[in-house]
Amino acid sequence: MYYITQESGLSDRAGTCLPSQEESPRASISAQSPKRPSFAEPIPNVTAAVGREAILQCTIDDLDTFKVAWIKVDTETLLSYHTHVIPRDNRLKVTNSNSDRQWFLHIKNLDVSDRGFYMCQINTEPMISEKGYLDVTVPPSIVEENTSTDITVDERSRVSLRCKAAGYPSPRVVWRREDGKEINLGPMGAQKSSVLRLEGEFLNMTQVTREDMGAYLCIASNGIPPSVSKRILLQVNFQPKIRVNNQMVGAALGSDVVLGCRVEASPRPLTSWIRNDGVILLNNKKYELTEESESYRINMQLKIKNLEEKDFGHYKCVAKNTLGDKEGFVRLIEISPPTSVPHSTQSQEFYVPVHKGSSDATKNDSHMKKGYGIPAPNSLRDESQSLSSDEKQLASAKDEVLDGEKPKRKQSQNPTQGSQTNSRGSCQINFSIHVQLAFLFALLLFD
Question: Where is this region: Disordered (predicted)?
Fold first, then answer.
């Protein structure tokens, strides 16, 4: 172990002196030199990661024949004299350049113990020196013995996870969920507190639920690559819960049908389908059992092929784990197969008046056709000329009665009926006047 003193230059702790500049053969020549060595600039501070290489630089003007030494200050260890490395440490090397103006101390495969001040010293009388600081950084690491491992708790329990990290500078620890969901910290008064990220060594959750189940990552970083993380799996146990969306399912004979149940349970339950006669169903040509799982959720399905009469009835899905068991019921009923219904045309009803007697039916039919806007075979003028006087009176009386008893609702059924009825009425009035005049004229003739 060597160090430099101002009195005797380089010497060891046992008192063995190394030759100082004054005892050197060229001391007289150096004393006559008008220039003394000086440091052109301070030694720059160096920062390097553990395991890497650090290079400290010492720049000297007018060194001449003087010698340069590197010393570790905190341990007072002489590392080199000129280009000769003193300790038997193959990590150390000294180089120079630019006509001995620049001197470099190389330290490979850095260790934390290499952190500290280093002195570049010139063996003048008195000696002169400059110091520079080597900072050795350490990437973050997880301290496994002080960090939580995978944990299993019951629902509604309190959970505290710890992630201890080491490194230099001191690492920053951040928690987040692997699936990207928010971290449930538990109720804070009347509200639920949740965050996407949480900084700190501890992650405390006051009341975990089944939704909190999953993997949590603690990530440690301090700016020195690489960052590190640890995955901690949180398992939340609870007894099974079954939800049946369709409790009654209908199907026809000969068809296939699918029954379903949704199960939530942790740890993963044993599941089964049981028929109403107590038979546990297995996969075969008749039954097809399938399950789709996601975390603590399981979607159970039972497919029954080629339905028969004996297949209708109750079925139950069963889930059981260490905390309990649960059943869900589905009723399968028979329905008629769908049939095609022929297209039917809409029937139309027509009103056709029927009258007794040939002559009356003809006359009444003539009046009805006129009422509905249909022309009669003969005009009123021709009809009046062919009738006798008695028949004219009888026809006039019947016409008046028929006009008075004609239903008003038939007029409303035909928009064109009103105008023709009015014209018919005016014709009947004229006909009645002619008949009365003819009757009076006949009475005068007989008188």
Answer: 1-40, 355-424
3-state SS, residue 219: strand
At residue 309, φ and ψ (nearest 5 deg) are -60, -40
Which pLDDT does position 31 carry in this prediction? 45
The verdict on pTM exceeding 0.70 is no
pLDDT score at 347: 41
| Spatial contact of 50 and 106, defined as CB atoms under 8 Å apart | no
Helices 417-446 and 358-371, axial angle in degrees (round to 10): 140
Counting every residue, how long is the chain?
447
Q: Residue 241 in contact with residue 263, Cβ under 8 Å?
A: yes
How does strand 183-188 pair with strand 191-195?
antiparallel
Name 301's bridge partners: 260, 290
Query: Comparing C-alpha atoms, which of 417, 416, 415 is closest to residue 368?
Result: 417
Residue 440, both tokens: 């009076």
Residue-wise pLDDT tens digits, 409-427:
444 444 444 444 444 444 4
Q: Look up residue 329 and give its amino acid.
A: F
- β-strand partners of 117: 133
Query: Which tokens go with 437?
Result: 């005049």
Characterize 326-350 residue by residue with b for buried, 16 or more Cβ atoms within 10 angstroms of its Cβ, and e for exposed: bebebebeeeeeeeeeeeeeeeeee
Would you list the DSSP string of 363-384? HHHHHHHHHTTPPPSS-HHHHH
d(CA 104, CA 81): 12
Q: What is the DSSP string of 419-436?
A: HHHHHHHHHHHHHHHHHH
Q: What pLDDT, in 10s, does the model give residues 35-82?
A: 789 999 999 999 999 999 999 999 999 998 899 999 999 999 999 999
Nearest in space to 3 (alpha carbons), one of 65, 96, 59, 80: 80
Residue 400 pLDDT exceeds 60: no
Q: How far is CA 166 from CA 169, 233, 276, 310, 403, in A?
A: 9, 22, 62, 69, 117
Count the helices and strands in the chain (H runs, E runs). Answer: 6, 29
Q: Is 98 left (phi over 0), alpha (psi -120 to 50) or beta?
A: left
Pairing of strands 9-12, 2-5: antiparallel
Strand 228-243 vs strand 151-154: parallel, antiparallel, or unpaired?
A: parallel
